[in-house]
Amino acid sequence: MTDRQNESNDGNNKSRPNPLSDVPDGQGTSEDHGLPLDRLTAAYAQFFDEEQTPHEDVPQTSSHEKDREGSHSAKEKAALFLEEEQATLADEQEQHCPLTPLSILESLLFVGNVENRPLTGKKIASLMRGVSEREIEQMVEELNQAYQEEYHVFRVIRKESGYQMILHPELESLRQLFYGKVKEAKLSQAAIDTLAIIAYKPGIPSKEIDQLRGRESKSILAQLVRRNLLRFERDSKNRRTQNYYTTDRFLDFFNLASLDDLPLSNDTDLI
Fold it and tell me: What is the pTM of this model?
């Protein structure tokens, strides 16, 4: 080999870092046994700045072991899915509302009817299985007792011959704040007289009202119907005849549970 080639080789060797230069002392080479394997792997790991040495053996997994791992993985996924489904089912059962006679009664009273009139015990019993009309009153008492003990905002009251769910009287101010305060209605003496006649004689025709009052009542009747204190029905025999009745608002206005609460006196015999 020429001198120029030796110089070239020496220059190349100088430009390349020696991977064994930083290996700790005491682990040098041996002329008899060569370079130890652990020293060589440590040097290459440092040289390439890798976390894993290039000579580290990677465990080989057989196809049979892969099948077993896949089988275990599928079983674990199935078990996890089953646990999640059971937890979801438990949550749904906790949130499920039990279907009992009391919960059905509460639902019926909450929904009410289209005309917002009280539900009679007979009507409620007809919509429930295995419950008689006499049991409805006791169930209403149980419901109100539960409302009171649990500080609910609702109460069930008896109105006319039925039941109705209302907001607790102590929360009436909140209802007025939302809907606005109901204006107090002022009735004339003529309106009060007309209401009294119809309250004591439900279904009375307009002509008979005129006779009892001694004057024509068409305008006052129209006003009371417009204010929802009266309602009328067409006579089945003569469609032109209007028979008048009081309304639930009439009962609320005079703080009556039903027309049976009207005071009785000798003057009513004249009506």
Answer: 0.41
